[in-house]
Fold this sequence. Notes:
Elements: E1 2-12, E2 15-21, E3 24-26, E4 29-34, H1 41-49, E5 56-63, E6 66-68, E7 77-80, H2 92-100, H3 111-117, H4 133-146, E8 151-155, H5 163-177, E9 181-185, H6 189-192, E10 197-200
Parallel strand pairs: 4-9, 4-10, 7-8, 8-9
Antiparallel strand pairs: 1-2, 1-3, 1-5, 5-6
Amino acid sequence: MKITTENLGKKYMNEWIFRNVNLSFESNHAYAFTGANGSGKSTLLQVLSGFSPQSEGKAVYLSGKKEVEISEIFKEIVIAAPYLELIEDFTLTESIDFHQKFKPLLSSFTAKDLIDFIELPKAKNKEIKFFSSGMKQRVKLGLAFLSDAKIMILDEPTSNLDADATAWYLKNVQKYAMNKILLIGSNQPNEYEFCDNVFSLHQFKV
Length: 206
């Protein structure tokens, strides 16, 4: 999988959030976007995911030599981010089952495997609305790690995680990003210190 951006830009009202982003992203590589809160990291990730339209330029997605249309790229993407909500009235098991209707898990994993992987077996029948913010973030990360997708986007991945859960993230993120494009938005160096490409959003300011 490969993503190439050509003069990609995004503005709100008359303010450019970023502009002239000309980058390439390829499978088996990890990329981090850094910058202070409000610098545009999340916005850039949302544009790259197709969730938010760009104001100028374009992003091209290639699977092998075949271009994937922006309207179809969601099938190849998993995202874990604080602003993405889980369905509060679902139990953990129901959340995973619902997720799999749109994004299958890696072939060797079942819903039970995922629950064990995120270390929440005692909460399998608990409704998400009763989860702590850290438990919810672990669910989001577990779904991202174990879903069968070619692009993984993690925005502030250790948000709301305690020290043990952060260690769990660091233990697993590189393993489950193999063969994928990994894009991380962060201002915490420990979240992306393994990335081989780091870009500051300040370099894309007008």
